[in-house]
Specification:
The protein has ten helices and 13 strands. The chain has 349 residues and is an alpha/beta fold. α6 links the parallel β10 and β11. The structure holds 2-acetamido-2-deoxy-beta-D-glucopyranose (2 copies). It is a single-pass type II membrane protein.
């Protein structure tokens, strides 16, 4: 049987339409999900970070597009309104207020499946209190620890765009006056650093500044005073992995006093700071030897003293507030492992 030709053409068109429609229906959802994946890959998905409570109550005004306006990070909303918990992709909890009971985890509220809770601390494990009640709640850590999910060290050494060849003397602050300086809040006898200090001061003069002398550790006067010291004793209050604080980054490096460090192993310092930028207490068998070495450098071997400024030709030191680091972490959120829970916070990195 033969169809008249115009009917045949109609039939072909009909079959084509049906096939095309079928394809379209199949491809539509795929097109859609492709779109979402592309967004994630280029980091254009907007992430929301909720600061549950401000560390030490020091709040920031987050008005406007904070991360973009301040640090040039788009698609990242930083907020501190607890009522917006359900919107947040990540929620940051500062440890101190939790362990002191001033703030609580919102465990009674519904927690979105994909929301990550971040445990933040800048203290060493010794000063973090009892963490057992908080096991099993957090997905990420935000600490100075090199393995932290959100790495937030007290400072960074950053390569300069190009190396400079200025004479080393130009990096050494003028009018050095004190041999060794120390800024300390408490000379608690139980701290190991106190033992070292007591021995060292029998070998060399040490100028001690109580913390109260300066309005705060961010006081410009502190840097100015420390710049007059050949050496700064960057002794940490406890010795634990990667715990290297503003004593090194700010008080020593930023002032231009050569740091004498006491804290984690030399290798851990070297992982974040140039090898020849500091003197480690452990480099010496005895405190007497350390003291004699410092005196030699300051008063006899200027060239060797200057060699501790060599890194400044290639690097600068930067100190970044944790809020900035949180903003800058935003684009990385999409590429983080999908699932993680800290069942034992005491074993944190
Ligand atoms: C906090 O968020 C809630 C819900 O979005 C809103 O009603 C409230 O006005 C906000 N509070 C402040 C202080 O912005
Ligand atoms: C975050 O941790 C909680 C445990 O409190 C867990 O139920 C949830 O699946 C984790 N989420 C992710 C995305 O890892």
């Amino acid at each position: 049987m033969r169809f008249p030709s115009h009917r045949r053409i109609l039939l072909i068109i009909l079959v084509c339409l049906i096939l095309f429609g079928y394809q379209l229906v199949q491809w539509l959802p795929l097109l859609n999900s492709d779109q979402t994946i592309t967004n994630d890959e280029t980091g254009t998905k907007t992430h929301k970070i909720l600061v549950w409570h401000w560390p030490f109550g020091n709040s920031f005004n987050l008005d406007g597009d904070y991360c973009k306006d301040k640090f040039g990070v788009p698609n990242c909303i930083m907020m501190d309104n607890q009522s917006r918990l359900s919107e947040a992709d990540i929620v940051i909890f500062h440890n101190r207020e939790l362990i002191h009971g001033q703030q609580r985890l919102p465990v009674n509220l519904k927690r979105p499946e994909k929301q990550r809770w971040v445990w933040m601390t800048m203290e060493s494990p010794e000063n973090n209190g009892d963490l057992k009640p908080f096991n099993g709640y957090f997905n990420w850590t935000m600490t100075y620890h090199q393995d932290a999910d959100i790495y937030s060290p007290y400072g960074f050494m950053v390569p300069k765009e190009s190396e400079t060849y200025e004479p080393l003397e130009s990096f050494i602050p003028k009018d050095k006056f004190y041999l060794a300086c120390w800024v300390v809040s408490s000379v608690s006898p139980h701290l190991e650093r106190t033992t070292i200090y007591k021995k060292l001061k029998t070998v060399i003069p040490i100028k001690v500044f109580g913390r109260a002398v300066f309005k705060s550790l961010h006081d410009q006067a502190l840097l100015h005073t420390m710049s007059r010291c050949y050496f700064y004793l960057a002794f940490e209050n406890s010795v634990s992995r990667d715990y290297i604080t503003e004593k090194l980054w700010r008080n020593a490096y930023m002032s231009g006093a050569v740091p004498v460090v006491f804290g984690p192993y030399r290798e851990e310092y070297e992982a974040v700071a140039q090898t020849d930028s500091f003197i480690h207490v452990n480099d010496f068998d005895t405190v007497e030897e350390l003291g004699k070495f410092l005196m030699t450098l300051a008063y006899e071997d200027r060239e060797r003293y200057a060699s501790y400024f060599n890194w400044r030709r290639k690097y600068t030191v930067e100190i970044k507030h944790w809020v900035e680091l949180a903003c800058k972490f935003c684009p990385k959120i999409s590429s983080m492992p999908p699932h993680k829970v800290y069942e034992d916070l005491d074993a944190w990195p």
